[in-house]
Write a structure and sequence with these properties.
single chain, alpha/beta, FAD/NAD(P)-binding domain, 2 domains, five-stranded parallel sheet, 17 strands, binds flavin-adenine dinucleotide
Length: 290
Amino acid sequence: MLDIAIIGAGPAGLSAAITGKIRNKKVKVFGNPMSTSYIYKAERIDNYIGMLGVTGKEMMEQFTGHAREIGVEIQTAKVIEIFPMGKSYMLNVENEFIEAKTVILASGIAKTSILPGENEFLGRGVSYCATCDGPLYRGKAVVVIGDSTHAEEDANYLAEVCEKVYYIPLYKEIDHLDERIEIVRSKPKKIIGENVVAGLELAESSLEVSGVFIIKESIPTSKLLAGLEVDGAAVKVNRMMETNLPGVYAAGDCTGKPFQVAKAVGEGSTAVLQAVSYLNALNREEKLNL
Ligand SMILES: Cc1cc2nc3c(=O)[nH]c(=O)nc-3n(C[C@H](O)[C@H](O)[C@H](O)COP(=O)(O)OP(=O)(O)OC[C@H]3O[C@@H](n4cnc5c(N)ncnc54)[C@H](O)[C@@H]3O)c2cc1C
Protein backbone atom coordinates (compact mmCIF):
# COMPACT_ATOMS: atom_id res chain seq x y z
CA MET A 1 0.00 0.00 0.00
CA LEU A 2 1.26 3.50 -0.79
CA ASP A 3 1.76 6.00 2.01
CA ILE A 4 0.96 8.95 -0.26
CA ALA A 5 -0.78 8.94 -3.64
CA ILE A 6 -0.46 12.22 -5.51
CA ILE A 7 -2.90 13.09 -8.26
CA GLY A 8 -1.36 15.40 -10.86
CA ALA A 9 2.25 15.72 -12.02
CA GLY A 10 2.35 19.50 -12.30
CA PRO A 11 4.40 21.83 -10.04
CA ALA A 12 2.19 21.18 -6.97
CA GLY A 13 2.21 17.39 -7.28
CA LEU A 14 5.92 17.14 -8.04
CA SER A 15 6.84 19.48 -5.19
CA ALA A 16 4.80 17.32 -2.80
CA ALA A 17 6.38 14.14 -4.16
CA ILE A 18 9.95 15.40 -3.74
CA THR A 19 9.47 16.31 -0.07
CA GLY A 20 7.48 13.12 0.58
CA LYS A 21 10.30 11.05 -0.90
CA ILE A 22 12.92 12.89 1.15
CA ARG A 23 10.81 12.12 4.25
CA ASN A 24 11.12 8.40 3.37
CA LYS A 25 7.48 7.81 2.57
CA LYS A 26 6.23 5.42 -0.11
CA VAL A 27 5.05 8.03 -2.61
CA LYS A 28 3.72 7.73 -6.14
CA VAL A 29 2.51 10.38 -8.56
CA PHE A 30 -0.30 9.63 -11.00
CA GLY A 31 -0.52 12.27 -13.68
CA ASN A 32 -1.57 13.00 -17.22
CA PRO A 33 1.33 13.72 -19.61
CA MET A 34 3.61 16.65 -18.69
CA SER A 35 2.27 18.74 -21.57
CA THR A 36 -1.13 18.97 -19.84
CA SER A 37 0.25 21.01 -16.94
CA TYR A 38 -0.86 24.63 -17.28
CA ILE A 39 2.68 25.92 -16.96
CA TYR A 40 3.86 23.86 -19.92
CA LYS A 41 2.05 26.36 -22.16
CA ALA A 42 3.87 29.42 -20.76
CA GLU A 43 6.24 31.03 -23.27
CA ARG A 44 8.40 32.67 -20.63
CA ILE A 45 8.32 32.77 -16.83
CA ASP A 46 9.96 35.65 -15.02
CA ASN A 47 8.49 35.40 -11.54
CA TYR A 48 9.74 32.05 -10.26
CA ILE A 49 12.81 32.48 -8.13
CA GLY A 50 16.06 31.18 -9.59
CA MET A 51 14.69 30.41 -13.06
CA LEU A 52 14.51 33.79 -14.82
CA GLY A 53 13.26 33.62 -18.41
CA VAL A 54 12.64 29.88 -18.45
CA THR A 55 9.93 28.48 -20.76
CA GLY A 56 7.10 26.45 -19.26
CA LYS A 57 8.36 23.33 -21.02
CA GLU A 58 11.88 23.80 -19.63
CA MET A 59 10.49 24.37 -16.15
CA MET A 60 8.40 21.19 -16.26
CA GLU A 61 11.35 19.20 -17.59
CA GLN A 62 13.48 20.44 -14.69
CA PHE A 63 10.80 19.73 -12.08
CA THR A 64 10.12 16.24 -13.49
CA GLY A 65 13.83 15.49 -13.87
CA HIS A 66 14.47 16.51 -10.26
CA ALA A 67 11.66 14.28 -8.99
CA ARG A 68 12.80 11.28 -11.03
CA GLU A 69 16.45 11.78 -10.05
CA ILE A 70 15.68 11.40 -6.36
CA GLY A 71 13.60 8.31 -7.06
CA VAL A 72 10.01 9.58 -7.26
CA GLU A 73 7.85 7.17 -9.24
CA ILE A 74 5.60 8.90 -11.76
CA GLN A 75 2.92 6.91 -13.55
CA THR A 76 1.49 8.58 -16.64
CA ALA A 77 -2.18 7.79 -16.21
CA LYS A 78 -5.46 9.44 -15.31
CA VAL A 79 -7.09 8.86 -11.93
CA ILE A 80 -10.75 8.21 -12.60
CA GLU A 81 -12.14 7.97 -9.09
CA ILE A 82 -11.07 7.71 -5.46
CA PHE A 83 -13.07 5.70 -2.92
CA PRO A 84 -12.77 6.03 0.86
CA MET A 85 -11.98 2.63 2.46
CA GLY A 86 -12.10 3.29 6.19
CA LYS A 87 -8.56 4.39 7.07
CA SER A 88 -7.26 4.35 3.49
CA TYR A 89 -8.31 5.30 -0.04
CA MET A 90 -8.63 3.20 -3.21
CA LEU A 91 -7.71 4.85 -6.49
CA ASN A 92 -9.10 3.76 -9.82
CA VAL A 93 -6.21 4.54 -12.17
CA GLU A 94 -7.64 3.71 -15.58
CA ASN A 95 -9.03 0.48 -14.12
CA GLU A 96 -5.95 -0.45 -12.09
CA PHE A 97 -6.82 -0.29 -8.39
CA ILE A 98 -4.25 1.15 -6.01
CA GLU A 99 -4.59 1.67 -2.26
CA ALA A 100 -3.01 4.57 -0.38
CA LYS A 101 -3.11 5.74 3.22
CA THR A 102 -3.22 9.41 2.19
CA VAL A 103 -4.05 11.34 -0.97
CA ILE A 104 -2.83 14.70 -2.24
CA LEU A 105 -5.00 16.27 -4.92
CA ALA A 106 -2.83 18.41 -7.21
CA SER A 107 -4.93 18.23 -10.33
CA GLY A 108 -4.81 21.89 -11.39
CA ILE A 109 -7.79 23.93 -12.54
CA ALA A 110 -10.71 21.71 -13.45
CA LYS A 111 -11.12 22.80 -17.06
CA THR A 112 -14.37 21.01 -17.53
CA SER A 113 -17.85 22.35 -17.34
CA ILE A 114 -20.57 19.91 -16.40
CA LEU A 115 -23.01 19.00 -19.15
CA PRO A 116 -26.72 19.04 -18.20
CA GLY A 117 -27.59 15.41 -17.32
CA GLU A 118 -23.94 14.48 -16.58
CA ASN A 119 -24.41 14.29 -12.79
CA GLU A 120 -27.81 12.65 -13.04
CA PHE A 121 -26.67 9.83 -15.37
CA LEU A 122 -23.14 9.25 -14.03
CA GLY A 123 -22.83 5.46 -13.73
CA ARG A 124 -26.11 5.01 -15.64
CA GLY A 125 -24.82 5.69 -19.14
CA VAL A 126 -22.32 8.46 -18.45
CA SER A 127 -18.71 7.36 -18.01
CA TYR A 128 -15.29 9.02 -17.72
CA CYS A 129 -13.29 5.90 -18.67
CA ALA A 130 -13.57 3.71 -21.78
CA THR A 131 -11.30 0.98 -20.39
CA CYS A 132 -13.38 0.76 -17.21
CA ASP A 133 -16.87 0.81 -18.70
CA GLY A 134 -16.45 0.02 -22.44
CA PRO A 135 -17.37 -3.69 -22.07
CA LEU A 136 -20.79 -2.68 -20.66
CA TYR A 137 -21.65 -1.18 -24.05
CA ARG A 138 -20.74 -4.18 -26.19
CA GLY A 139 -22.91 -4.12 -29.34
CA LYS A 140 -24.46 -0.76 -28.44
CA ALA A 141 -24.19 2.80 -29.78
CA VAL A 142 -22.12 5.31 -27.80
CA VAL A 143 -20.77 8.80 -28.20
CA VAL A 144 -17.36 10.00 -27.04
CA ILE A 145 -16.83 13.67 -26.20
CA GLY A 146 -13.08 14.33 -26.27
CA ASP A 147 -11.18 17.49 -25.34
CA SER A 148 -7.82 16.46 -26.85
CA THR A 149 -6.26 13.84 -29.11
CA HIS A 150 -5.71 11.64 -26.03
CA ALA A 151 -9.43 10.85 -26.10
CA GLU A 152 -9.03 9.26 -29.55
CA GLU A 153 -7.37 6.19 -27.92
CA ASP A 154 -10.51 5.65 -25.84
CA ALA A 155 -12.78 6.09 -28.86
CA ASN A 156 -10.67 3.62 -30.92
CA TYR A 157 -10.98 1.03 -28.17
CA LEU A 158 -14.76 1.55 -28.04
CA ALA A 159 -14.92 1.05 -31.84
CA GLU A 160 -13.68 -2.51 -31.19
CA VAL A 161 -16.53 -3.37 -28.81
CA CYS A 162 -19.47 -1.13 -29.66
CA GLU A 163 -21.79 -1.35 -32.63
CA LYS A 164 -21.53 2.37 -33.39
CA VAL A 165 -19.25 5.08 -32.06
CA TYR A 166 -19.79 8.80 -32.62
CA TYR A 167 -16.96 11.15 -31.76
CA ILE A 168 -17.38 14.81 -30.82
CA PRO A 169 -13.99 16.55 -30.77
CA LEU A 170 -13.82 19.72 -28.68
CA TYR A 171 -10.61 20.63 -30.58
CA LYS A 172 -9.62 21.12 -34.23
CA GLU A 173 -7.16 18.55 -35.59
CA ILE A 174 -8.03 14.84 -35.38
CA ASP A 175 -4.88 12.75 -34.99
CA HIS A 176 -5.46 8.99 -35.16
CA LEU A 177 -9.14 8.10 -35.10
CA ASP A 178 -10.32 4.65 -36.25
CA GLU A 179 -12.16 4.84 -39.60
CA ARG A 180 -15.21 3.04 -38.14
CA ILE A 181 -15.94 6.08 -35.97
CA GLU A 182 -18.30 8.83 -37.14
CA ILE A 183 -17.02 12.33 -36.36
CA VAL A 184 -19.72 14.80 -35.33
CA ARG A 185 -18.74 18.47 -35.24
CA SER A 186 -21.45 19.90 -33.04
CA LYS A 187 -21.79 21.25 -29.52
CA PRO A 188 -23.20 18.80 -26.97
CA LYS A 189 -26.14 20.39 -25.16
CA LYS A 190 -27.80 17.85 -22.86
CA ILE A 191 -27.74 14.16 -21.96
CA ILE A 192 -31.23 12.73 -22.11
CA GLY A 193 -33.05 9.58 -20.91
CA GLU A 194 -35.40 8.22 -18.27
CA ASN A 195 -33.53 6.03 -15.77
CA VAL A 196 -30.57 5.45 -18.07
CA VAL A 197 -29.06 7.40 -20.96
CA ALA A 198 -31.07 7.32 -24.17
CA GLY A 199 -29.32 10.02 -26.18
CA LEU A 200 -27.38 13.23 -26.47
CA GLU A 201 -28.92 16.48 -27.61
CA LEU A 202 -26.69 18.56 -29.88
CA ALA A 203 -26.96 22.16 -31.07
CA GLU A 204 -29.13 21.24 -34.08
CA SER A 205 -29.82 17.51 -33.84
CA SER A 206 -29.52 14.60 -31.43
CA LEU A 207 -27.84 11.17 -31.23
CA GLU A 208 -29.54 7.99 -30.04
CA VAL A 209 -26.95 6.35 -27.80
CA SER A 210 -26.82 4.20 -24.65
CA GLY A 211 -23.49 5.56 -23.46
CA VAL A 212 -21.88 8.98 -23.26
CA PHE A 213 -18.12 8.83 -22.62
CA ILE A 214 -16.76 12.18 -21.48
CA ILE A 215 -13.00 11.88 -21.93
CA LYS A 216 -11.31 15.03 -20.70
CA GLU A 217 -7.93 15.71 -19.17
CA SER A 218 -9.42 16.52 -15.82
CA ILE A 219 -12.37 15.26 -13.86
CA PRO A 220 -14.12 17.76 -11.56
CA THR A 221 -12.63 17.19 -8.08
CA SER A 222 -16.07 16.75 -6.54
CA LYS A 223 -16.60 13.83 -8.96
CA LEU A 224 -13.14 12.39 -8.34
CA LEU A 225 -13.76 11.93 -4.64
CA ALA A 226 -17.32 11.82 -3.30
CA GLY A 227 -17.88 13.85 -0.14
CA LEU A 228 -15.04 16.28 -0.84
CA GLU A 229 -16.03 19.81 0.10
CA VAL A 230 -15.59 22.35 -2.70
CA ASP A 231 -16.24 26.03 -3.10
CA GLY A 232 -17.22 26.48 -6.74
CA ALA A 233 -14.39 24.85 -8.67
CA ALA A 234 -11.88 25.06 -5.79
CA VAL A 235 -11.24 22.34 -3.22
CA LYS A 236 -11.85 23.74 0.29
CA VAL A 237 -8.67 23.58 2.39
CA ASN A 238 -7.31 25.11 5.58
CA ARG A 239 -3.82 26.64 5.98
CA MET A 240 -2.30 23.16 6.31
CA MET A 241 -3.90 22.13 3.01
CA GLU A 242 -6.21 19.69 4.78
CA THR A 243 -9.57 19.03 3.13
CA ASN A 244 -12.68 17.96 5.03
CA LEU A 245 -11.70 14.27 4.56
CA PRO A 246 -9.09 12.69 6.88
CA GLY A 247 -5.81 11.96 5.10
CA VAL A 248 -6.80 13.96 2.00
CA TYR A 249 -4.95 17.17 1.13
CA ALA A 250 -5.05 19.50 -1.86
CA ALA A 251 -2.45 21.82 -3.38
CA GLY A 252 -1.94 24.19 -6.30
CA ASP A 253 -4.44 25.62 -8.74
CA CYS A 254 -7.12 23.14 -7.61
CA THR A 255 -7.40 25.03 -4.29
CA GLY A 256 -8.14 28.33 -6.06
CA LYS A 257 -6.42 31.64 -6.76
CA PRO A 258 -3.75 32.94 -7.16
CA PHE A 259 -2.79 30.65 -10.03
CA GLN A 260 0.98 30.79 -9.64
CA VAL A 261 3.77 28.24 -9.68
CA ALA A 262 5.27 29.54 -6.42
CA LYS A 263 1.95 29.09 -4.62
CA ALA A 264 1.46 25.62 -6.12
CA VAL A 265 4.93 24.49 -5.07
CA GLY A 266 4.54 25.91 -1.54
CA GLU A 267 1.14 24.31 -1.08
CA GLY A 268 2.47 20.96 -2.36
CA SER A 269 5.20 21.02 0.24
CA THR A 270 2.80 22.05 3.05
CA ALA A 271 0.32 19.33 2.05
CA VAL A 272 2.89 16.56 2.04
CA LEU A 273 4.39 17.57 5.39
CA GLN A 274 0.90 17.44 6.85
CA ALA A 275 0.40 14.00 5.28
CA VAL A 276 3.70 12.86 6.83
CA SER A 277 2.52 14.00 10.31
CA TYR A 278 -0.78 12.19 9.78
CA LEU A 279 1.03 8.99 8.71
CA ASN A 280 3.37 9.14 11.68
CA ALA A 281 0.39 9.54 14.04
CA LEU A 282 -1.33 6.57 12.33
CA ASN A 283 1.80 4.46 12.86
CA ARG A 284 1.95 5.38 16.56
CA GLU A 285 -1.74 4.52 16.93
CA GLU A 286 -1.24 1.15 15.19
CA LYS A 287 1.73 0.30 17.47
CA LEU A 288 -0.33 1.13 20.59
CA ASN A 289 -3.11 -1.17 19.39
CA LEU A 290 -0.75 -4.14 18.81
C1 LIG B 1 -0.22 30.38 -20.52
C2 LIG B 1 0.06 30.35 -19.03
C3 LIG B 1 1.11 31.08 -18.53
C4 LIG B 1 1.39 31.08 -17.15
N1 LIG B 1 2.44 31.81 -16.70
C5 LIG B 1 2.77 31.77 -15.39
C6 LIG B 1 3.91 32.50 -14.92
O1 LIG B 1 4.61 33.18 -15.66
N2 LIG B 1 4.19 32.41 -13.58
C7 LIG B 1 3.45 31.67 -12.70
O2 LIG B 1 3.78 31.60 -11.51
N3 LIG B 1 2.36 30.98 -13.15
C8 LIG B 1 2.00 31.02 -14.45
N4 LIG B 1 0.89 30.30 -14.89
C9 LIG B 1 0.08 29.56 -13.91
C10 LIG B 1 0.69 28.16 -13.64
O3 LIG B 1 0.73 27.46 -14.84
C11 LIG B 1 -0.12 27.38 -12.61
O4 LIG B 1 -0.33 28.15 -11.46
C12 LIG B 1 0.59 26.07 -12.23
O5 LIG B 1 0.79 25.26 -13.37
C13 LIG B 1 -0.22 25.31 -11.18
O6 LIG B 1 0.36 24.07 -10.92
P1 LIG B 1 -0.55 22.81 -10.49
O7 LIG B 1 0.43 21.71 -10.25
O8 LIG B 1 -1.47 23.20 -9.42
O9 LIG B 1 -1.47 22.51 -11.76
P2 LIG B 1 -1.06 22.08 -13.23
O10 LIG B 1 0.26 22.62 -13.60
O11 LIG B 1 -2.20 22.43 -14.12
O12 LIG B 1 -0.92 20.50 -13.13
C14 LIG B 1 -1.99 19.66 -12.84
C15 LIG B 1 -1.77 18.34 -13.55
O13 LIG B 1 -2.70 17.37 -13.06
C16 LIG B 1 -3.21 16.64 -14.16
N5 LIG B 1 -4.48 16.01 -13.79
C17 LIG B 1 -5.69 16.61 -13.61
N6 LIG B 1 -6.61 15.70 -13.26
C18 LIG B 1 -5.97 14.50 -13.23
C19 LIG B 1 -6.40 13.17 -12.96
N7 LIG B 1 -7.66 12.91 -12.65
N8 LIG B 1 -5.48 12.16 -13.04
C20 LIG B 1 -4.19 12.43 -13.37
N9 LIG B 1 -3.72 13.68 -13.64
C21 LIG B 1 -4.62 14.69 -13.57
C22 LIG B 1 -3.35 17.68 -15.25
O14 LIG B 1 -3.51 17.09 -16.52
C23 LIG B 1 -2.01 18.42 -15.06
O15 LIG B 1 -0.97 17.76 -15.73
C24 LIG B 1 0.59 30.31 -16.26
C25 LIG B 1 -0.48 29.58 -16.78
C26 LIG B 1 -0.75 29.58 -18.13
C27 LIG B 1 -1.92 28.79 -18.67
